[in-house]
Design goal:
Layout (H helix, E strand, L loop, with lengths): L16 H14 L3 E6 L5 E5 L5 E7 L5 E7 L4 H6 L5 H17 L4 E5 L8 E3 L6 H10 L21
Antiparallel strand pairs: 1-2, 2-3, 3-4, 5-6
The chain binds zinc ion (ZN) (2 copies).
One zinc ion binds next to loops.
Length: about 160
């Protein structure tokens, strides 16, 4: 048995579909030296590398046929992870893609009016009474835009709702 692991070889995922597909394929190899530490009720798994102690999370990539893939995560107490696992980069890829295609078709431009939502000091967008943030929130509530993905956001992953 080899005493070295391949953790160092894998960097953070770029948020593209291809990158997720490649990682799905690589995950079987990556898993070789990983030991399971915990499972969340939503099906995420927490792993640690027995050689270098790197933490990994396994999640399902729903838009890739629900296939599992692994990605590195920062140090975390198991109890904290159990409460809220990390966000799945594959969810971010899909979320950003849907958001982008929406914003390509719909330009949200600020108006002179204040957002109608209490305690909000932003400007409402043209042809609506809400600011961008609250307008997007209401579209998400009605299922017209995807919900922001669940999970702890962590470096270097980000997403912005414009
Ligand atoms: Zn390792
Ligand atoms: Zn607002």
């Amino acid at each position: 048995m080899s005493k070295s692991c391949t953790c160092k070889k894998y960097s953070a995922l770029k948020l593209t579909r291809d990158e997720i597909s490649i990682r799905i394929k690589d995950s079987r190899k990556i898993k070789k030296h990983l030991i399971i530490k915990s499972k969340s009720d939503k099906g995420h798994h927490l792993y640690v590398c027995e050689i270098c102690q790197q933490l990994w999370q396994l999640s399902s990539a729903w838009n890739w046929g629900g296939k599992d893939y692994l990605f590195k995560i920062p140090e975390i107490e198991i109890e904290d992870w159990n409460l809220e696992p990390f966000i799945s980069p594959a969810d971010l890829v899909i979320f950003s893609a849907s958001m982008e295609s929406y914003f390509e078709k719909n330009k949200l431009v600020d108006s002179e009016n204040d957002c109608k939502r209490e305690e909000c000091d932003k400007k409402a967008i043209l042809k609506d009474v809400l600011c961008k943030t609250h307008f997007i929130e209401s579209l998400q509530r009605f299922g017209l835009l995807p919900k922001s993905p669940d999970g702890k956001i962590f470096e270097p992953y980000t997403y912005n709702v414009k």
